[in-house]
Each structure stands twice: as structure tokens, then as C-alpha cells.
Amino acid sequence: xxxxxxxxxxxxxxxxxxxxxxxxxxxxxxxxxxxxxxxxxxxxxxxxxxxxxxxxxxxxxxxxxxxxxxxxxxxxxxxxxxxxxxxxxxxxxxxxxxxxxxxxxxxxxxxxxxxxxxxxxxxxxxxxxxxxxxxxxxxxxxxxxxxxxxxxxxxxxxxxxxxxxxxxxxxxxxxxxxxxxxxxxxxxxxxxxxxxxxxxxxxxxxxxxxxxxxxxxxxxxxxxxxxxxxxxxxxxxxxxxxxxxxxxxxxxxxxxxxxxxxxxxxxxxxxx
Length: 272
Description:
11-stranded mixed beta sheet; 10-stranded mixed beta sheet
């Protein structure tokens, strides 16, 4: 293999160094991005607690491994790279764990007008892992986790895919999207509510649950097959009272309660 000429190495060097520097573009603010990763042994049946006190997002993914893996992206805007690195050494992501418990917390803010954003992707054992998440301002998503899950957002969207066990989620301002899999809810039940935002629920055509959808100020739309009620085939009925609307229906063979609602926003039920 022929060696690269020295001039080629010199041309490549600035590009490599540039990855360490904040990016700018015209009037765009300085931006410094720093990744962080950590993985540790963790048995199914444990509990993971997450606290995000800065803007950002949390994504939980269930996997088959007996471990927890955290992938973090820390973004400092409006600060030179050297100062941003120094700030991040004093305001780290704190991870504490045993084989069955883990806490991941993010706090702190850089001097104004600089800002900090932290985005977390956390992989957990998909079976029997309990999760609690508190997010000050940002989105929450969870995919294929069976356990006791509680999520509280001051402001942000929720995206829930293929959950099982028990789920309780609430956000003061943000949309809620739920995508159920399988033939029924396996567990204690599901509750999700937003004060201001729309709610979208996707269910398989043949699904069993006790369903309740509510909006205090909005419209419920239904694109789902009729159900058998007392020997009659009837579409899910929406009850309207002034600005409020509600749908209560036993779908399939009934079962665990699924309750979703919004104070201000529309609700949709769609067949997958």
C-alpha cells in the first residue's frame, strides 16, 4: 500500500480538527456537541429512574440483553468549545446503578445566554423492567418494554409503541401517540393524558380491551370496525355534551382498561 503524500495528510488534518470545534453558519449561534455512552449489567425485574431537568428528549428501547445502555448527546449552544467542555465537566450526566436499580439524572444550565440540551437513548431489558421518568421540557418515547412505567412531562410529546404491563403518562402540553400491538393489553392497564394536545391511538383490528377516550374541548374521530354489543354489531359510539366528547366501548372480548384523554385537543382512534 502506497503512503499518502505529506500534503494530503496536511489537507486532511483541518477536517479532523473541525469536528472538535463549534459549528457556525452565518448568523447561527455557536454549537458544541459532546456524546457520552455507558453500559452496565442489569437484571430483568429491576427499576430505572430518569430525571431530565434540562431541555431534551428521552427515548427508552426494550432489548434482549441483560444490561442497560445509555447513549447521550449533550448540546451546548452559544458558548465557545473550550468553555463548553469546561462547563460539561462540572455539569455531568450522573449515573448510579446496581444490578437491579439505576438512576440517570441531568441538571444544570450554562451561563446565559448559552443553553444546554441533552438527548438520551436508553436500552433496557424488554421484560419486567420498571421505568420512572420526569422531564422538565422535552419529548418522551418508549418502545417494546414490559413493566411498570410512569412518565411525567411538564411540556413535551409522548410516543408509546408496543407497551405491556402498566403505563401511566401525563404531559401538561404536548401530543400523545400510542401504537398498540398484539391482540390485547397484558397487564394492569394503560392511562395517558395531556392538558393541551391531540391524542392518537392505533389499535390492531382484532384487539380486546375496555376503551375510554375523552376530550373536554375537541372532537373524537373513529376509524375502527363495529363491535358486537348485546348481540348487535354497533360502531363505537361517541357521546357529545357541549364541547366535551367521550367514547366508552368494550372492544373484542374486553379486558384491561385503556384510558386516554385531553383537556384541549382532538382524539382519534384508528385501525392499524
